[in-house]
Amino acid sequence: MNHTTLEGAMDYEQIIDAETWAFIGKTLAHYPADAATWSVPKNREVYDNMSRVFASQRPAGVNTEDRHIAHIPVRIYETGGHDITIIYFHGGGFILGGLDSHDGVCAELCARTGYRVVAVDYRLAPEHKHPAAFDDSYQATVWAADRWRQPIVLAGDSAGGNLAAAVAHAIRGQEVSIAGQVLIYPGLGGNVDEGSYITQANAPLLTRDEVLYYTDVRYDGGRPAGDVTASPLDDSDFTGLPATVIVSAQCDPLSDDGRHYRDKIHAAGGKVVWINEDGLVHGYLRARHSVERARASFSRIVEAARALGAGEWPYT
């Protein structure tokens, strides 16, 4: 189990419950001590294998179609219940993941909301550096909005949360109906030398060093300063954004990115709520069937997406 001696850091043994520790152990079983030295292709292979261990069967009644938008693969999930669309961007540090790694999450979002879900298989680094992932995410959103012309909810976890927010900033003011965004433990370009990046530097399943590694791989020559398509927190204007629900994990270096993003939207007069899930860790969506805290959080995520798509704001 993970102990950290950093000032202000948490005692993870006291905060994280037994179910979550079991999930952490099951995940780490795929990553031996030398995993940090592995190549990106090897890391992808292991990540995909690990994702399959946590995979769940698609709910009955969910139909899927794989297709391409220009060069971008997408998977469309439908039940025929509503003509509202969730566009989902998967996590994986901009170097891992794809349609299959988050298939269960997208299928369950579709089944439980009744909304169409479009999963976007954006290009990955290091083969495709920034802004390739953003460009693909933006193009897929414009395509979906043009095709269905109904309210759209942007959603994503981790790197996907970054992409959802970046698209929301870039697309505002255009003739695209974005009803809201649901950002799940997103990395939004916060200061890595303060706050949760320090107090949660050695958190289980995502460390500060790993965040820095993913950042280095994503960019040519370091993170570009002031580039909102890379770091939504760098924007100077937070007006005009869609209603926003941010769901962070307490034991995660990225947790304060959610808090700071909430504060900036709130100061600009927008609708926003930040939920920091007690005792949960980065990547807990994979634990939604085995950990009660993760199951409850996923229900909150589903309800947020459903409410935003319906034009509701059930938060005080």
Structure keywords:
10 helices, globular, 316 residues, alpha/beta, eight-stranded mixed β-sheet, Rossmann fold, disordered N terminus
Note down, in words, how this protein is organized.
By secondary structure, the chain is α/β, with parallel strands linked by helices. Residues 1-7 have low confidence and may be disordered. It is globular. 37% of the residues lie in helices and 18% in strands. It has an 8-stranded mixed sheet with strand order 1-2-4-3-5-6-7-8, with helices on both faces. α5 (132-148) crosses α6. It has one domain: 3-Layer(aba) Sandwich (Rossmann fold). It has 10 helices and 8 strands. The protein has helices at 12-15, 18-28, 40-53, 103-113, 132-148, 159-171, 196-199, 208-218, 255-267, 292-309; strands spanning 63-69, 72-78, 85-89, 116-120, 152-157, 178-184, 243-251, 272-281.
Main sheet overview: 8 strands, mixed
Q: Which structural class fits the helix and strand makeup?
A: alpha/beta
State the helix count.
10
Low-confidence stretches: 1-7
Q: What is the approximate shape?
A: globular
Physical arrangement of strands within the biggest beta sheet: 1-2-4-3-5-6-7-8
CATH H level: which superfamily?
A: Alpha/Beta hydrolase fold, catalytic domain
Q: What CATH architecture label applies?
A: 3-Layer(aba) Sandwich
Per CATH, the class reads Alpha Beta
Query: CA-to-CA gap between the ends?
Result: 37 Å
What can be said about this structure in brief?
This protein has 316 residues and is α/β, with parallel strands linked by helices.
Layout: helices, strands, pairs:
Layout: H1 12-15, H2 18-28, H3 40-53, E1 63-69, E2 72-78, E3 85-89, H4 103-113, E4 116-120, H5 132-148, E5 152-157, H6 159-171, E6 178-184, H7 196-199, H8 208-218, E7 243-251, H9 255-267, E8 272-281, H10 292-309
Parallel strand pairs: 3-4, 3-5, 5-6, 6-7, 7-8
Antiparallel strand pairs: 1-2, 2-4
Helix pairs in contact: 5-6
